[in-house]
């Protein structure tokens, strides 16, 4: 029964990738999954017991900390060339400073989600102050995207800065119907390295996990420079991209 409910909540549209204008050999987006906190309040094996029900060699691309001038645009250009959709976890103050980049992410079909307002480590804060910081981030991103906000964010996805969660905050977010994202593997792009070093590292990690939710940062120049080659490598190695979206509102 639980498995059936999970399958129903994780409604999946499976279809052959559409033709990508100007790039007939594009990686493209293979399918879309709708994720609901009612059945999957926390996902990502680096941090939680469960993750998304992905098939072998399926990946979900996620980017944290943006939007940021220069690097976010380069990331979006690379994704657009391959007709690939990703999820961006935005820092509220960056969305406020660069709303045109946040709007571009949304306009190009990506999922735009939340990563607090200032990017503090929330487990070092009083729970009430931490929740206020989360809410301020929700408001800033939705205002940048839609010109207004309400108590609940339009896209109910959140990732803790530094993955610094607490049980209290996790429970409060679950009660509000907000999915908390961890990751299944990461590029480690907070460390200084060349684009080619980052590419080798993430491909090696993929060989171990055979897919999963991947964490990048669209604020990092090395990641923006590496991404076109990474997307081509996914295609060459038979990987498929899955796009995650929230419940229809």
Feature tags:
alpha/beta, 8 helices, globular, 249 residues, disordered N terminus
How would you characterize this protein structure?
The structure is a single chain. This protein has 249 residues and is an alpha/beta fold. The chain has one domain: TIM Barrel (Alpha-Beta Barrel). It is built from eight helices and eleven strands. 43% of the residues are buried. The protein is globular, with a radius of gyration of 17 Å.
Concise overview:
The chain has helices spanning 2-9, 71-81, 92-97, 99-107, 127-146, 167-175, 195-209, 221-236, and strands spanning 12-14, 29-34, 42-43, 58-64, 87-90, 111-114, 157-158, 179-181, 185-186, 211-217, 240-245.
What are the SSEs and their pairings?
Blueprint: H1 2-9, E1 12-14, E2 29-34, E3 42-43, E4 58-64, H2 71-81, E5 87-90, H3 92-97, H4 99-107, E6 111-114, H5 127-146, E7 157-158, H6 167-175, E8 179-181, E9 185-186, H7 195-209, E10 211-217, H8 221-236, E11 240-245
Parallel strand pairs: 2-11, 3-8, 4-5, 4-10, 4-11, 5-6, 7-8, 9-10
Antiparallel strand pairs: 1-2
Helix pairs in contact: 2-8, 4-5, 7-8
